[in-house]
Structures are given as C-alpha cells and as structure tokens.
Design goal:
By secondary structure, the chain is mainly α. It has 16 helices and no strands. Helix 3 (46-65) runs antiparallel to helix 6, helix 9 runs antiparallel to helix 14 (334-356) and helix 9 (237-267) packs antiparallel against helix 16 (400-420).
Length: 431
C-alpha cells in the first residue's frame, strides 16, 4: 500500500491522507480484534480460526482489487483484511509455542515466523512496486488473493494439538470496550494537525473506554468469571518490558516505511517500482538477522539481542536523517534502511520469545493475543504518528521528513530504555 499511494490516490480520486487512513485503519482493526480473536481460538479451535482468517482476507483482497472508490477499498483492505489477519495470526504463535517447548527451539520457530513477518513488511514495497508499475495496483490485491488460496490448500494437513472447547465463555462486553477504546485513541492521533478538537475528543473518549475496560475485567475476575484478558498478565515485569519493545519495534519499522515511501513519491517524485527498490536494503537486513536468530539465541542473552537491535536501528534512523538531507542520490537511503532492517530483525525474535515464554501453556491463547495486539498497535501508531506529522506538511515543502524521522528516533530511545531494564538472565521468566 505504501508504494501505491500515488497510483491509488489518482485512480480513486483521493489524497495521500485518504490512503494513509486506509493503511492505518487496517493495522488498527487488526490490533483491536487481536485479543478477542485469540480468545476465540480456544472456543473454535486454532486451525478453524486460521482458515477463517485466511478466507476473510482473501475476500477482502478481491473486493479491494475491484474497488471503485476509497470507501470500498477501506471495506476490503481495512475491514475484511484487518479482521482476517486478526483471526489468522494468533493461532500461528500459539501453535508454535505448543509445538516447540524449550528456549532454543522456540527461538528457531519464532525466528522463522517473526523473520518472515518482518521480511514481508520490508519486501512488500518491492513486490507492490513491481506489480503496480508492471500491471496496476489492483493486480497487487489479486496477487494477495492468490497467495492466500495457496496457503489455504497447504494448511489442510495442519494438526491442532489441542481440542476446541465450544463451552469456553467469551467476554463480549470486554471485547467491545477494549476495541472501542483502542480505536478511538489511534483514530484521534490521525486527526492531529487537521482537526485538533476531534483529536482531543477521541483521545479522551478512548482513554475513558480503556479505563472502563480495565475496571470491567477486574470486576469479572473478582466475581470468579472469565474475563477477556487476565489482569495477571500485567503483573509480570519482564513480559511488560518485552511488550513495550515489541510495540516500538513495529512502530519504527512501519513508521519508517510510510515516511520514506511518502517522501520518495511526493517530494522526490519516485515511481512505485523505484520506491520499492529502495526498500530492498531493509529486506536484506531483516532477512540476514532473522536467519541468524537461532544461532544468536545460543550465543547471547535475549536482553543483549534486543538492546543491540535498538542501537543498530537508531543508528539507521540517524543515517536516514543525515544522508538523505545531505544528498539527492537514491543511494543515500541504503545504509540507513539496511541498518534498520538488521536491527529490527535482530530483536523481533527475542522479544516474542521473552513474552511467550513468560507464561504456561494454558495462558498461551491470552498472551499470544495480547502480544500480537501490542505489536500491531505499534504498527498503527507508527503510521498514524509519523505519517500524520509528514502528511500534514509534506505538500508545503517544509522539513516534515526530518520532523517525522526525528520523532521516530525519540520513540526508539524509549524502546532502548525498556530493553535496558529487561533482566539479563538467559532463561525466560515464569509468571
């Protein structure tokens, strides 16, 4: 979507802000539904939720491919693909946790999963650019549908080690409160700069719903009823810090991707394919560090890998700030994006491993949903915060790129601080 910004906005007669809204809504819907959908894996079964998610995603991709306007694109891409992703992601992490029981083997499994996720995020611009330039942006969504169809066929032999429990209660009220709260907060951020009154209103409303959600689930727990999310998950300090690092990792990756993509297309006038080629550096970085995840887990502590990842990523952001502003060459983007790819790829796996390994098997559904929700909220925040700063002033030819990347650097320092506070033990903490 990032490299299709110009093509989509021209074809559907919308703006960069409109496409940004569609991208952010996809990430947001995925984030707000991740916890409820993870709870449904216990009730409906992990394989069934995985297949349902793929089906919804495929339908959304087909609708996006034929969308006549931005509203239909949002229905297909943001809503259906967002809901589909929320259903299919938790089962992947839950099954990996159940199948791989020790730190090293989980590091390998999460390295493959997180690595491919990061590669997808980084390679997406190149693939999207190739298809958009060679055919059209609509063909890119048809390509998504084709990939989904192949995965559905390959997953028919997938075995779920745990039986589904249809009698498992589902906290609908908690799901609504949490979803509305998170939605309002991120949607409020999108209004910053263009409508500050709505920005304030949505933030206040979102905070009120999140407070109501916390009080509600606490009251259910005290009454002996199963809540959407156990408050006990937040009593594990190690897990809390690792969740912060997860959130900021994806914020930096998706925020950088959006800012650089918009800057290349709107300010430098790059085509979709040329923009996609630039991001090959980040793809190679993530690929290299992800493939080394298992070896790194054997040699270094999880904390060491996460701290090192943030340091390398921050150096990459500094290079994107300095070299890009100093040179008009396309090569000015390569060192920074390469380091960001290496840094993010190095810390994705240990962060997930610390979170998932902090709790026993009976809590894997809950913690997996919370972990994915926090990560995807980071993606939403990255596009919403950095994108809003950039889009609000990019057309006026100001230094918006510098402000957006500078904001990401400050947030990256917060992530580094959280990583430094993680315990330095090699073995995971237990809750």
């Amino acid at each position: 979507m990032n490299v299709m910004i110009n093509d989509i906005s021209e074809d559907l007669d919308t703006t960069v802000k409109g496409v940004q809204t569609a991208i952010t809504l996809f990430l947001l819907i995925m984030a707000v539904l991740m916890i409820p959908c993870s709870k449904l894996t216990d009730r409906w079964g992990r394989k069934r939720c995985f297949t349902l998610g793929l089906t919804l995603y495929g339908i959304g991709a087909l609708i996006s491919a034929v969308s006549p306007n931005l509203s239909v694109l949002i229905l297909g891409n943001s809503v259906l693909e967002g809901v589909g992703t929320a259903f299919l992601i938790p089962p992947v992490y839950i099954l990996a946790t159940l199948w791989f029981t020790n730190l090293t083997s989980r590091a390998w499994a999460f390295g493959v999963i997180s690595g491919l996720g990061g590669i997808g995020a980084a390679a997406g611009p190149l693939i999207g650019g190739l298809i958009t330039t060679g055919i059209s942006w609509r063909a890119a969504f048809l390509f998504q549908a084709a990939v989904v169809a192949v995965i559905v066929l390959l997953s028919r032999r997938l075995e779920d080690p745990l039986e589904a429990d249809p009698t498992r209660p589902f906290d609908l009220i908690g799901a609504v409160l949490s979803a509305v709260g998170m939605f309002c907060i991120v949607f409020g951020i999108l209004q910053a700069g263009s409508n500050n009154a709505l920005f304030a209103i949505f933030l206040v409303v979102g905070a009120a719903f999140m407070l109501a959600f916390f009080l509600y689930i606490r009251s259910r727990e005290r009454a002996g009823k199963e809540a959407l999310l156990s408050t006990g998950l937040f009593k594990n300090r190690t897990c809390n810090l690792a969740l912060v690092t997860q959130n900021i990792q994806w914020l930096l990756l998706l925020g950088t991707s959006f800012v650089v993509s918009v800057y290349l297309q709107e300010v430098r006038g790059y085509s979709a394919i040329k923009t996609g080629v630039v991001f090959t550096a980040a793809t190679l970085g993530i690929l290299a560090s992800s493939l080394a995840a298992e070896r790194l887990a054997k040699r270094f502590q999880q904390k060491t890998l996460i701290v090192a990842g943030f340091v390398v990523t921050l150096v990459g952001i500094v290079l994107l700030l300095g070299l890009v502003r100093a040179s008009d060459s396309i090569w000015a983007f390569v060192p920074g994006l390469l380091l960001i790819g290496l840094g993010v790829g190095a810390m994705l796996t240990p962060s997930v491993n610390v979170v998932q390994s902090s709790f026993p098997e009976d809590l894997q559904g809950e913690i997996s949903g919370l972990s994915r929700s926090i990560s995807n909220l980071g993606s939403s925040f990255g596009t919403a915060i950095a994108g809003t700063i950039l889009v609000s002033v990019v057309a006026t030819g100001t230094s918006a790129y510098g402000w957006a990347m500078g904001t990401l650097a400050v947030i990256g320092l917060i992530g580094l601080g959280a990583a430094l506070l993680l315990p330095g033990t090699r073995e995971p903490q237990t809750g």
